[in-house]
Amino acid sequence: FTGALYSPGDGVVDPAMMCTALTKASVANGGMIVEDCSVSEIVTGENLLGVRDVRGVVTNKGMIRTNTVVNAMGVWGRDLIEPLGIHLPLIPMKHAYVVSETMDGINQMMPNIRDHDYSIYFRIQGKSICMGGYENNPILLDRVPGDFHFGLYDLDYSVFDTHIQGAVKICPEFGKAGIKSTICGPESFTPDHKPLMGPDPIINGLFHNCGFNSAGMMLGAGCAEQLAKWIIHDRPDLHMFAYDIRRFSPKQKKALNWATERSHEAYAKNYSIVFPHDEALAGRNFTVDPFHKQMIQHGAVMEERHGWERPGYFLPEDTVVVQPYDWYGYYDYPKNTNTNYEEALQKDYTFGFPEHHDLIGEEAHTCRQEAVLFNLSYFCKLFLTGSQAKEAADWIFTADTDKPKGKTVYTCALNKRGGVEADVTVSIVESGQGELHDPIFKGRGYYIVAGGASAYHTKSHMLATIQEKALRAVVTDQTEELGVLSIQGPKSREILQKITDFDLSDEEQLPPNSNAVLSLKINPFYSCNVRVLRVSFVGELGYELHIPEESCNDVYNALMKAGYKEGLRNAGYRALYSLSSEKGYHLWGNDLRADDTPVEANLGFTCRKKGDYQGKAIVDRQLENGINKKLVFFTLREQVIDQ
């Protein structure tokens, strides 16, 4: 060997022995294994509230009646559920490795190794080396025949040869040994190279556990254990959002082209270093907000989250445009000649302070000293209405949402174990004028704003909770119909006041943690209505403007013009998260997770004492008996990263 990466924690497991051991353990605990039993249909029905649920499966040996089915069908994971109107972002590909002839000096005690430059691995099998890798041009498959479960393909050496060349360079002796056998089979891959797990958000009783990206032997048993707890206890022990099927929106799951692009890139980059600000090049511009063109014109370097484009930071004197995916120059696609966006990303691919660190710092300082404009349009925006909307809000949210019209409350939504499934703002609203931001409905309603990266997860959690309680409440998603501009900083009120007749200085009319529908003067002849929330994610004086799609560009231009003399500038999410962290605020999925309770996360103030809500018993117990872990924030006095 000339050198490669060795991980001391790596081990070897015989796949046949492992499967046998798991099978025996299952049977010993009451499980039943039925072989040669093909499933042709999942039978579903509807309950009295119109919610779909599992009733059984049709097999070649008869009907099995059950209310719980796990989709663990690997590359066939899409096939059986698509007739139900359910889609998964799962792409079959050919994946291969070769086994060398017996080699002198090779024994079972030698370590597995990887080489990230050549994107290959060596695994010891007896006195032979198994070698495989992740090429830039894998063979993509549309479907895999249902009877191909033990089938193998002939190895395409024109694709696999790149791995052989790399293997010979790091282990010249490998090049002298012959190839004893080739193994090329169908494998399932996903857009982020992570499994698809958890409850289906459309059909109750259907769970997913597929898309293991050639890591089934490593992850299978542990994921199965967590899924079993998910089914029995409604939650796994661990924070599983990275594997949760609800990390993808319905729009993403249905878009096969998007899933294919992203899965290809994830496959090709499997051995690439994952830097803190790594961005995908595939599947971009999938969903853009109304401000997208203006963001680009003002120098935004875009990021992608949950299928949405959002500004990471702004270049003062340049524009960089995300290009269509070029598939690394394969499949007859030419390589992109405009690489400005990729070059901007590469400058920040480091574990130290990135090249644009000071520029992002300027955006943050401007927010603290003057004012900035954040485009938060990809945030989740929901209306909760219906005859039992109040009962739903009382049960879902920890805070007291029984407030007068115009109040806005920061709150958590918990699972049955008291873990935080979402942290959101809830604005109490009444029936309005029929506009997108001010809809007409009966009774009292709630306008809910949540983080964009977990938008569908938040919505699904709310819907599942409402369905479980059989409440007559409706969740309406307005995320794509409303843009959001957040003007933050000491001068934000002064700037916003220039385009509205509403007296923003009247603390009784629009105090902190409140909302109102205001009219904004775009020009002397035209005004538009928006919903304004007096909230801040950065700990400064500020306002969120929730704007109907058709008025977004006009409001943006009016604000930038009004704030020119006050130094108003655009700022991106890199500055936003830095500012938020400085204030000790939370970002769900990162420093706040589904296995953290509000008490552990310093969010006990969001939990009301009166009334009941999901997870309250756990919260009350911790408040009385104490906790074993606690989220804390530290301020570092020195710059600890060597630039």
UniProtKB/TrEMBL annotation:
Signal peptide: none annotated. Residues 234-287 form the FAD dependent oxidoreductase central domain. Residues 291-610 form the GCVT N-terminal domain. One of its GO terms (cellular component) is mitochondrion. Pfam families: DAO (PF01266), FAO_M (PF16350), GCV_T (PF01571). Residues 1-230 form the FAD dependent oxidoreductase domain. This is Sarcosine dehydrogenase, mitochondrial. It comes from Culex pipiens.
